[in-house]
Structure formats: C-alpha cells, structure tokens
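Why predict the complex rather than its parts? Because the way molecules touch one another can change local conformation, and only a joint prediction can capture that. The input here totals 525 residues.
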Amino acid sequence: MDTQFEALAAWVDGEPVARTEVALALETREGREYVLDLMAIRHMVNVSTPSLPVAQPQRSVRRWPSMTAAAAAVVLCAAGGFFAGRLASPVASVDSGDATLTPVSTPVSISAPAPTRVIQLEENTSWRESGGS
Amino acid sequence: MWTLFLLSGLLTASPQQSSSPAALVPQLQEMQARAVMSRADGLEITLASTVQLPNGRRVGVSVRPAAGPEPWFVYSRGNLCQSVITHSPAPADAAEGWKVTIVERARVTSQGATAPSQVTIGVTWSRMWERGRQILNGSGGTSELTLKRGDQIPLDMITRASDPAACPGTTKNLELQVGANVNTAAVPTGESPLDGVVDAELWMVHTAPNGVETVEHQVVRLMNGVIGFSFRGGPLDTADGQVAIELSGQLKAVRLEDGSRGLWAALTKGVMRLSTGAGTIASPAPTTVGWPTTGDVVQMDLGPLQFYAGRGGGGGGGRGGAVGSTRSGSTATPPTTSQSGSGGATGGIVARSGGAGGGGALSAGGRGTTLPPNLLEGHKLSLRVRLSETPR
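Output of the joint prediction:
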C-alpha cells in the first residue's frame, strides 16, 4: 500500500509515474481518499504559504473570492469523494463456513439472468501454463 | 482541478450508433488470412481496452489483428463497462474513447532465426470523446515501435468516478498487446454481415461448490469480424495463495450451413495466481450456436476449474499442504507487473515485457506421479450471452 500511496503522491505532484501504478492505486478506496486528502492538504498549504519568488500583482484583493470558491470546491469535492468512495467500496466478506475458499471480498452484487439455453462446451484440451493476461 | 476530474460522473445514455456498414467479404477474408499468418509467429497485434473494477476485477474488449490502414474507434457508451471497438463511421453514441490507427511496418528476423521475433509498427492515437462530448485537440501521440511477443503497450487511460449501480469501473485503459491470443482456435471463414447494431451482454458466472454465483458483467458490441472480450474476477483465497478466475473469448456472427446466422464463440478459462501473474488456462473447443433471439440467454458451460498447489507458470507455489483450510478477510492485492522499458515508446508510453507466456500441458504423468488435490474442486465457470439488436 505504501508503494501505491507513493505513486499517487507523485502523480498529484506532477512527477513522472507509471500510468498502471496510478490506475491500480486508484482502484482502492484508500487510494482515492488519499488523493482527495492530498489535494486538500496541498491546497491549504498553497493558501497559507506565500509564493516565494513570484511578485504578486496588485489585484490580490480580487483573488479572494476565487480562492474562497476554490477552497469551497475542494471541500465539497473531498466530501463527495469520501461518499463516492464509500459507495464504490466492496462489501466486506462474509465467512461462508464450510467453504474451502472464499472470495476476499464481495463486489457490488451483480446477478445474471437465468439461461434459456445451456451449451456444454466440449473440453478437448488440457490445462496449460500461462504467463497470465 | 484533478479532484474535480475524479469526481465527475459518467454521462448516461447516448443515442445509438448511427450505422455499422456491412464489410465486404473479401476484406474480411483478408483480415482472417492476416490473422492466421500473425498467429504463426506470435506477433499479432491486439488493440485492447480494459476497465479496472474495484478489488482487482477487470473487464475488457479487444480486437485482433488490429494492424491495418483503417482507423479504429475504441470507446465506451453509457458507462465504462459498455465497450465498443469498431471501424468507421465515427460513432454518435460515444461517451469516452479514442481513435487509433496501427500500421505494421515490418517484421524483423534475427540472424540465424527462421521466424521473425519482432514487429515494427506505427501507431497514432488521439482521445476523441470525454464525458459524452467530442473534443478537439485531445491528448494523443504518434509512435514508431519495435515490439516482441508478450509486449504490452499502454497508450492512454481515462479515469472516472465509479458508478456502482451501472459500472463500478474507475479507469479505462487503451493498450496494444503483441501475441496476446491465448485461444488459438481457427476463426471460421463464413461471415454473416451484420446490418444493424448488435450488442452482446456478457456475464461471467463463477459458481462455487455451495451453489453461490459470483457474476461479472459487461456489454460489448459485435462487429463484422471477430470481437474479443475478457473478464477477471475478484481475488479468491485458496490454501496456496490468492487466485483470480479469468474468462476470455472471441465472438463472431457466422453463416450456418442452412443459410441462417449463428454465433461462434471460442472461450478460454483461466486461473491466475495473483502473487505472480502466472496461472493455468484451458480452451474448450469453439462452438457455434443458433443466433440468440430477443430475450434468449445462452449459457456456455466451460466445465470445472482446476488449480493445484505449486502450479502456475513458475515462481509460484511452495505453500501447499493446507488444503481445505478456510481463509478470509485479507486485503486484496492487485497483481503487479514488472516493467522492463522495452519497445522504445515515446510520449509517456511504457512498454511492459512478458505476460503472454506459454508452457507445457499440465498432466499427471510418469512413474506414478499424481497431481496434488485440486484446490478449486467443485468450482464451475460459464458465460451467459444475451444479444440486443437495433436495426439500422
């Protein structure tokens, strides 16, 4: 998980990072929440820390409404992300008792329609090793 | 702003694709001939688009051979789990997607070798739709790549907020694969050109010994030619580590001897060890069924699943002996993929080597050796298919 967090942090910071690492990290609720937290923290740091070398133009007063709006947007997005993450997260696994193996967790329940035709495929080949997909 | 992107919802239903012209038979035969040639040296180019779901699950669509002068449109409609890969015309129902053109330049044979070991291609891609709108000047790139069998080249990725009710996917990837065809069944030449839009709802149904079904779902659009699809289920704990059930296949509308239309299917089942990304696969003989009518749900049973302690493409195993124990509650760990940087991609493209390995058949042979207990004894796998047709 630390590796995934590092990938997300690098991504948020605009550093080079493999797309696949970010994708995998974003699959988890923790990953998504981490990104949202990072964004909120970074925004707060940016607001409270003066820019070092850049001379501020005279229109700083006019920036407050936009900064406030941006901060509000971040807070709203963070809250929305939290609840979206909760909705997207898989349901915790249920111990199935005597089963010899169990799914690590159960995704959002999907059901398939009952079949109207059943075809039994002829298995004429044996199992073989594969490097995966 | 990134947060806003992450939280943006998926746009819902879009108009159906306006048209899907029937391809000419000679062109299809040419494509099939190219496919046979490519299969011989394992350098066939596959264009794939996969959707990552929570908990390591995955659904995807693919097409091969993907190299040719005509561009492909790879897109989602409605939600990320409704995937289409098609040639022109440009779709009207795309929500997220790309335009991709892959041209094969040459096949490279090493000194002393009898068969080519590398293929050089030119690929041009651009993002054309985002959130249901066609975009101009979307991200994209053009690359000349020299690839070898097993290479996987991610081109782009779209990240969207999850929509648990429709599709829990969060990312949709666009990638190239070389020699990724695990099912070597010959594609039948008899074509039954589709004169309308035909969407295939697919369900991978994994049935546990206690009868509990775990289902994965996606929708792919049939095309004139062969469309590929793939599923990967969530992690399962076994006494020899976590595994994932996989089901991939190809579908094609074919003409039957009596002149009617049939649905040809070549399926491959697999069990992948999550710690190594290796596993075992089996491909039952392809089948052709009468064209499913409206409401018809065809179930294709792939038979029992097998997984033995210590098996799975090398590198796995070593933890056998606890057959029958129950383990649960651990955290899912998506498989990791090593990156070797081959391929010479540019513009943020990363090449990953390996993946499409092969191996000898698994059998219990020789001097009385016996296979260890099947850790997936009693588990079954099937695919259910339902078609919906929209006339042009």
